[in-house]
Design a protein that fits this description.
Length: 304
């Protein structure tokens, strides 16, 4: 039995994706696999039903856990609150509650300069990332308060450092980072941990980019100082809800939390594999650095 046995996690953007060697090929699927190995019941969402069903079949057969798949797409013009409410209702009806919410899903049109960005491209990033996180956090709040649960959101160095061609993506990710900090302040009294992660994983998209455009890959994608890219499952995927042993992201206690927010301590967490490239294919990686949520100073940590 793993430490998440009996717990339920919603993971957005967690359809099956694998590398050439068969290992996890996306952050969402890496998290789903790591959580499945620890016994969690999973609610995974995405736009591609085939990938969701493939993930369900593999995770249930290999790890003996239960997986609920729900097709869901937060997009411009959609009835997005109803879409998210349906996911949360199905999760609660099936498993009885929610202990972890992981907002991983994000689409964007990378490589398009700001002056050439269309409204549709901007909406794609803002709705799939920022609005999706907003709706899921609102809908899950009462259940997370009941369980004293955790939220893990994903931001990016694209916003922290202004990556070329990623204006909409950066705007969405910085919005998520700011909203997460507010939620950490507001929800601390409810025992809810709100965490922000800025990762770079070696994914199927990045692998495809390397194979299709080797010169562009060499020019733009820089090796992190640790000498390897984050593993989608064993490093980034094993992000654990705060309070559990083995949680492998940097934890910073805000020394002013008690004075500014009452007796509760605000926690912020960061995993820091980094990248310095200005251009990446859509979904190729997560970002560059994590930063101190209060001061904006960059910190680095070797993964365990």
């Amino acid at each position: 039995m793993g430490f998440l046995t009996g717990k339920t996690a919603i993971i957005t953007g967690a359809g099956r994706a694998v590398l050439k060697d068969g290992s996890c090929g996306s952050i969402g699927y890496g998290i789903a696999t790591a959580y499945a190995k620890e016994g969690a019941n999973l609610v995974i969402t995405g736009r591609n039903v085939k990938k969701l069903e493939a993930a369900k079949q593999e995770l249930e057969s290999l790890y003996g856990i239960k997986v609920l798949t729900v097709q869901a797409d937060v997009c411009a013009g959609g009835d997005n609150e109803a879409t998210v409410a349906n996911v949360v209702k199905q999760a609660v009806d099936t498993f009885g509650g929610i202990q972890v919410l992981i907002n991983n899903a994000q689409a964007s049109a990378s490589g398009v300069p700001l002056a050439e960005h269309t409204t549709e491209q901007f909406d794609l990033a803002i709705y799939s990332g920022l609005y999706a996180a907003f709706y899921y956090m609102k809908a899950c709040y009462p259940y997370l308060a009941e369980s004293h649960g955790s939220v893990i959101n994903f931001a990016s160095g694209a916003g922290l450092f202004g990556n070329f061609g990623q204006s909409a993506y950066a705007a969405a990710k910085e919005g998520i980072r700011g909203m997460s900090r507010v939620a950490a302040t507001e929800w601390g009294k409810d025992g809810i941990n709100v965490n922000v992660v800025c990762p770079l994983a070696w994914t199927a998209k990045l692998e495809q980019f390397r194979d299709a455009y080797p010169d562009a890959f060499k020019a733009n994608v820089k090796m992190p100082p640790m000498g390897h890219y984050g593993n989608a499952e064993t490093e980034i995927g094993r992000l654990r809800p705060a309070g559990h042993a083995g949680f492998q992201v940097y934890v910073r206690r805000d020394p002013d939390a008690g004075r500014r927010h009452g007796p509760e301590t605000v926690k912020r967490h960061h995993l820091l594999p980094c990248i310095t490239n200005p251009r990446l294919p859509d979904g190729a990686g997560g970002g560059d650095f994590g930063s101190d949520s209060r001061t904006g100073q960059t910190k680095r940590q070797q993964p365990r």
